[in-house]
Design a protein that fits this description.
This protein is of the alpha/beta class and 281 residues long. The protein is 32% helix and 24% strand. 43% of the residues are buried. The structure holds uridine 5'-triphosphate.
Length: 281
Amino acid sequence: MSQNLYAIIPAAGMGTRLRPATLATPKELLPIFDRPSIDLVLEEIFLSGINHVVIVTSKRKPMIREYLEGRVDESFENWMPKVVQTRGGKLVPKIEFVYQEEALGLGHAVYCASQHRPQSDFAVVLPDDLYFSDPETPALGQLVSSYRDSGQSQLGLMPVSAEELELYGAACLETPEIDSNRSAISALVEKPKRGTSDARHAVVGRYVFSHPINSHLREGEKGLGGEIQLTDAIAKMLASSGGHGVIGVTLQGERIDAGTKVGLLRASIREARARGIPIAL
Ligand code: UTP
């Protein structure tokens, strides 16, 4: 059933790929041009019409909470001018924090938040996966509107080459497609070894889940790399629904993986240029 969604931002990871910067500063507060990166994903969530956000963080990263608690006390117009310009009216953000004691994997991080509302559907946004989209159709908003149509779980997808597939969770799609951007998902596999999957779409860091995902997250089995993987819980939900419960939406917009050093730099340049600031390199 379609209902009011809240959004989870998992932000308890170690950020090892961005060391040494992340030894001093949480990845989510590193600047994208002049804004902490978490502001870009919060803006996307608010533009998508969701005001309730649960951030999963770690006791090692108290700065995230300190920063956001200061920010929500300020004028919303100053903090999120694009949201006010695009959506008009007044949005009252509600931001909560839960802690993941140990970085056991993305599936575990999501469950640390979602277990407190087992009957609620929710969105998940990965804060190092940045989408630069039209503010009227933010990446998460594309999933939310597809969810509103069907009440089913939605995964953000990106077309990839056969070579790139092994870096991502891979999705096989059913034919015929639902429309030019949407298909039911028939199978999922986390980082398939080269040549072992026909999939041509990667799952990116935007999701909307119907609440039955919680019972699969609760099982908490370790998967690839000894981590509790979100992909494994989604695959189990797909199997238990007879393979018809999850929709893949190819997202419109430019995605930048800001969890890598080069990606972080590209995202800063993209953000500056979007704001009309010329960058001569
Ligand atoms: P990543 O694997 O991209 O982030 O997880 P990471 O672990 O921080 O980065 P590296 O690989 O060490 O450089 C995707 C998102 O999931 C969160 C991360 O904070 C990131 O936002 N995450 C991951 C958790 O919250 N908990 C975990 O146990 C794992």
